[in-house]
Amino acid sequence: MHRRPSRMKRYLQRPKRVGVVWGLLALFVSSGAYAAPDKQPNIIVIVADDLGWADVSYHGSPIPTPNIDRLVRGGVELDQHYVAPMCTPTRAALLSGRYWSRFGNTSPSNTQVFPTGTLTLAGALRSRGYETGISGKWHLGSLPKWGPKKFGFDRSHGSLAGGVGPWNHAYKRGEYTRTWHRNDVLLTEEGHVTDLIAAESVGFITSPRKGPFFLYVPFTAVHHPLDEPPEWLRRGRQADPKRPQYAASAMHMDDAVGQIVKSLETAGQRDNTLIVFFSDNGGTINPADGDNARYPGGYPENEPLGLNEPLRGRKTQVYEGGIRTPAFVNWAGRLKPGKVHSPLHVVDWMPTLCKLAGHESASDLKWDGRDIWPIVSGETTTPKSRVLYWQGVGRRSAALRQGNWKLIVHRKKAGDELELFDLEEDPGEKQDLSAAQSQRVAKLKQLLADETTRDNDAVPQP
Question: Which parts of the chain sit beneath pLDDT 50?
Answer without folding.
Answer: 1-8, 14-35
